[in-house]
Specification:
This protein is of the alpha+beta class. It is built from eleven helices and 13 strands. 41% of the residues lie in helices and 19% in strands. The chain is rod-shaped and about 150 Å long.
Length: 336
């Protein structure tokens, strides 16, 4: 035979695994007219109940354990054998599992109070929750269902995110080992990459860029110089360099992508280069001017006097009589 027992709010919350709504309990308790009842079900016994989709008792079978325990239509089932339940599907599944265990179990209801002080005081004892109480219970169920749906969605999104990360890691591992093409001007050579990485030193070792531009830095980008100029012309901010970690060690390279080398010269070395270029240019201009002057004077370019060195061979000098003057004009200094 089943037995019922009245329990307090804290016990109700514990039985419902934290899903028992304390505010809802207070709103429908009606000053003590309702209470939580625990029905003990012996091993192998059946309740003899039917439930609505909302988890409320919809039918009590005659002669069954529920009828003998005075369970009434409208009672709300919250817990079966320690499992919090909401809908009829959850209740029936939990009851089936509890019976299958072959052990006694308990079912928790929110119900109208049994006859007691209220009856002695001549007050009407409700047989089940009021319409307001049922509406409140339904609202709580809907909120719980929405929370569960949100939790399921969050779990699905998290699982999808982890799967995407794993797939990306697999793809990067597959594409990050092998050879990658790095282009510079008219050159397009292949370089080995390991875990998507190579270094500026490896690029410089083949292209010898620092020999021409000492202390330069080499950057890589999957965007070609032509595409970069198109972006600039159209005002699109889409150009970027490959990530470096540490500096001048490239990360995230893939064998299916071609990369372009961009050079940043060292400021001090670039200034030295500019100064050297100016000196060479000035010397060339001076030489060309001198050649023009002596060409006008009939002095052939083969004469060494033009270069600041007096001819020593009369037959090679076309202006032998003035060789010292011409050489001196072009930088020769007499030795005394």
């Amino acid at each position: 035979m089943g037995a019922t027992a009245s329990i307090d709010q804290a016990q109700a919350e514990k039985l419902a695994k934290g899903r028992f709504d304390a505010a809802l309990y207070d709103s429908i308790a009606q000053g003590g007219a309702l209470r939580v009842v625990v029905l003990s079900v012996p091993k192998g016994s059946k309740l003899g109940l039917s439930f609505s989709k909302a988890g409320c008792v919809s039918k009590v079978n005659a002669g069954g354990l529920a009828e003998k325990s005075k369970v009434a239509v409208g009672w709300r089932c919250y817990d079966v054998d320690g499992a919090a339940v909401n809908t009829s599907a959850e209740i029936n599944a939990a009851l089936a599992a509890a019976r299958k265990s072959g052990k006694p179990f308990k079912v928790t209801f929110l119900t109208a109070a049994a006859k007691g002080k209220a009856a002695k005081a001549g007050k009407a004892v409700p047989r089940g929750p009021s319409e307001a109480a049922l509406a409140a219970a339904k609202k709580a169920e809907e909120e719980a269902a929405a929370e569960e749906a949100a939790a399921r969605k969050a779990a699905e999104e998290e699982a999808a995110r982890k799967a995407a990360e794993e797939e990306e890691a697999r793809r990067r591992k597959e594409l990050g080992n092998g050879k990658v093409v790095i282009r510079y001007e008219m050159y397009a050579e292949e370089f080995d990459i390991v875990d998507g990485s190579t270094t500026a030193a490896a690029v410089d070792d083949l292209y010898c860029l620092s020999d021409v531009m000492p202390k330069c830095q080499i950057f890589l980008s999957p965007i070609s110089p032509q595409e970069k100029m198109t972006f600039l012309d159209e005002g699109i901010d889409a150009f970027y360099y490959v990530e470096e970690d540490p500096k001048q060690t490239y990360r995230g390279l893939e064998t299916t992508t071609a990369y372009y080398a961009y050079i940043q010269e060292n400021d001090d070395e670039f200034k030295k280069y500019q100064q050297k270029t100016r000196r060479v240019f000035c010397a060339e201009v001076k030489e060309e001017r001198q050649r023009s002057e002596y060409a006008e004077a009939g002095i052939p370019e083969t004469c060494s006097c033009v270069y600041g060195n007096p001819c020593v061979d009369e037959y090679g000098c076309k202006n032998w009589a003035y060789r010292y003057a011409i050489a001196k004009k072009n930088g020769w200094k007499e030795a005394f």
